[in-house]
Structures are given as C-alpha cells and as structure tokens.
Amino acid sequence: MFKKTVLTLLLLLALSNLVWAADDLLVAILKNGVGLRAASMGGAFTALADDPSAVFYNPAGLALQGIGFLKGYNDLNYRESTDFEHTFFAANSFGYGFWKKTDTTGKKAEVFAYSAGKQGTGGISYGMTYKNINTSGASPESSGYGYDIGLIGNFSRTLRWGILLQDIIENTGVPASARVGIASRFFPSLVGTVDFEFRDVLSSAGPTIYGHAGLENIVTPGFKLRGGYDQNRWTAGAAVSISVVAVEYALMAARSDGSAPALQMIGFKVSL
C-alpha cells in the first residue's frame, strides 16, 4: 500500500508540470486560510489544528480530535466577494472540507478537500490532504488538484510544533509553500500560537515570508475571546457555546496599506 502511494505521488509530481497559470483569487483561496477560530487568531493554526479546519491548516491534527463540524461565512458585508463560505467535517481521523469564493467581478474558485491523519511513533502525528480545485465565471475555466502534507509533535506537555507543506504536488500554477508553527498552553485558560509561512519555497529568489500570531483566552467554560496578527492586519474574535454547539465571530481589520478591506465572519461549530 505504501509503495502504491509513493508511486502515485511521483506520477502526479511528473504530471504537475502540465499547469495552468494561477491568479490572485486562486492564490488567496488556497493560501490565506479559512475557519473562524484560525482567522481570529491571526491564521496561526499549524501546530494547534484541533478543530475540523485542520483539513486546511494541518491534516495531522485530525488524528488528535473527535467528531466535529464547522460552517462559516467569511465576508458578511461583501467587501471583497459576493459569496465566501466554508464547511469542514472531521471524524475518526478523516476530514472533509469545502470552501468557495466569488469575487466582485464574478469569478469563482472552489475547493473540495479530503484529508486523513494518523498518530505515529514518538508522539508525532502526520496527515495528508488532497484538494480538487475549480475556477469558473471567467475565461478560461479550469480544474486541477493539489496535495498538502502535515506533521505535529510535542516539545513538552504544554508546547507542540507543527509543519505543513502546502501544494507540494499540484497542477494549478500556485507555488508550493510551507508553514511552521508552535502552540503553547501558558495557563489552562490561555493558548498562544505563532506561525511562519514561506510562500513560493522553490523560487530561485527565495520565499516570501509572512508571520502569524494568535491568542485564545477561555473567559468562562462557555465563552472564549481571541486575537491575533496576520500579514499586516489585526484580528479578533469570540465564541459562545452551549453544550456541543458554539457560535463564532471573527473580525479581520483592514490592512494599513489599503490592500485588503476589513472582513467580518460568522459561523457555528458542533463538537462531539
């Protein structure tokens, strides 16, 4: 089984030379992240990855969680899109994700993602995500694929690390990238996360590096506050939960250089 998997990946790597050119919408939907909790924590979620959005941030996290469902709307005020939403489901180390975005010109990109995670030896978990990617509403319409591979391990009982290799095999024209992160539980009620993202890691000029940082404070068992910093913009959020259901809100402030507007997001999560 392992040999077949390796041969399949090598074949896909060879075929990935037959690419179509990526555009800004495609890069944004494959790289900028989805999921309200992660967004409100500055996108620093590679080492934490403990809800179903691990499908995007690190599939290794699926090996460390139970059953969960996420649904969210990423642009309530339609500032940079006419439709921007995501859905994630995780159960028994497997995950499914779907997210889509239609920009203000009518161009649409959507991603169907299928993930699996497994606990390995030495406390290290690993996982893989396969993504089917489609664009429409503009000429030419296209479809393609991408593969992500992730690892999560522990430095100590309260400190863990994560690595994500994103789009390392693909035929979309979106360059490969990597995320490296740590997550620390400073107190039982406070978690801090830091990510470094390296986009276009195979570029001869070297990768473009972005920093992400986030905090989550459990104010009461049913109320959480979050904040962070993501690529030159502040983020914030909150979650209110009753039993297994939580309602989540996230805010991404406008970038100071005017390159991105403020985004408000809302959604819900079910954890079993």
Spell out the key features of this protein.
single chain; mainly beta; Porin; 14 strands; globular
Outline of this structure?
This protein is mainly β and 272 residues long. The protein has a single domain (2-271), classed as Porin (Beta Barrel). 11% of the residues lie in helices and 52% in strands.
Distance between the termini: 32 Å
| Top CATH class | Mainly Beta
What would the principal axes of the Cα set say about the shape? globular
- List the strand order in the largest sheet: 1-2-3-4-5-6-7-8-9-10-11-12-13-14
Task: Write up what this structure looks like.
The protein is mainly beta. The chain has a single domain, classed as Porin, CATH 2.40.160.60. It contains four helices and 14 strands. The chain has helices at residues 2-15, 24-31, 36-40, 54-57, and strands at 68-73, 83-91, 94-102, 108-119, 125-136, 142-154, 159-170, 177-187, 190-199, 208-220, 223-230, 234-242, 245-252, 263-271. A 14-stranded antiparallel beta barrel has the order 1-2-3-4-5-6-7-8-9-10-11-12-13-14. The two termini are 32 Å apart. Residues 1-22 have low confidence and may be disordered.
